[in-house]
Structures are given as C-alpha cells and as structure tokens.
Design brief:
By secondary structure, the protein is mainly β. The protein has a single domain, classed as ApaG domain (Immunoglobulin-like), CATH 2.60.40. 0% of the residues lie in helices and 61% in strands. It contains no helices and nine strands. The strands form two sheets. Strands 4, 5, 6, 8 and 9 form a five-stranded antiparallel sheet that branches. Strands 1-2-3-7 form a four-stranded antiparallel sheet, with no helix packed on it. A hairpin with a 2-residue loop joins strand 1 and strand 2. The radius of gyration is 16 Å and the shape is elongated.
Length: 132
C-alpha cells in the first residue's frame, strides 16, 4: 500500500518520494518492519545538474536515529538535463512499526562545477493499519 506523496523543490530541483510497507518481508512479532521507497528527482531548473552524493537521517518510532552517507544513489550519479528526471527505488528496515527519513542530495552544475545541496522531503514509513 502506498502512502501519500512527499514532495519538495529546492533550487529548481524537485524530489518526490512514495513509500510502501513490504508485509511479506516483515515480521511484526520479531519487531522487524521493511519498507520500500521510490524517489523521483526532476530538474525544473534551466541548467544541467549531476547528483553527486547523498546524506540520509533515519529515525525509528522510538526516536533513535542513524545517518547514512554515500556517493550517488543506488550506485549511480545521474546527470539531469533541464526537464529531465531520474527515478530509483530503495528501502529501509526498522524495529518499530513507524519511522521517518529525511535528507539531502549534493548536486553539481555541469556547466561550471558549482555544488549545492537540495532537500529530500521528510517522509513517514508506517504499516498501513496505523493510519486508522
């Protein structure tokens, strides 16, 4: 089941995130909850950019957080022309039925090498029946 769309635009770059609980890989009785998320990064600016790196802050339902940093996204450093986009899927697991993620991507303008950060909107990962 998909949750609502989380979306944010920073410096002309839109980041949209959709989440999904993966019930068949989760084990609630063992406090193990698996979620997938799909990210679409769209270049709404007039210049070509490349995604260089990422930093994520991941917080579980008890408030415990961890930070994940790395180059690119799922092994790629995509170049986005004006009007272009890049989609990828990834996932995370929690020991709680709800968690949250937020972060930033470091982007580089291909024309002059200027690097800048864009925000990844914060989004909640939760098992579907917690909505009720």
């Amino acid at each position: 089941m998909s949750s609502n769309l989380a979306s944010k635009v920073t410096n002309g770059i839109r980041v949209d995130v959709r989440t999904r609980y993966i019930e068949d890989e989760s084990s609630p009785k063992h406090s193990y909850f698996v979620f997938n998320y799909e990210v679409e990064i769209s270049n709404e600016s007039p210049v070509e950019v490349q995604l260089i790196s990422r930093i994520w802050r991941i917080v579980d339902g008890l408030g415990q957080s961890r930070t994940v940093e790395g180059d690119g996204v799922v092994g790629k450093q995509p170049i986005l022309a004006p009007g272009g986009s890049h989609k990828y899927k990834s996932g995370s697991h929690f020991s709680t039925a709800v968690g949250m993620m937020m972060g930033q991507y470091c982007m580089r303008r291909t024309s002059d090498g200027l690097e800048f950060w864009i925000d990844i909107p914060s989004f909640t990962l939760q098992i579907p029946y917690l909505d009720n």
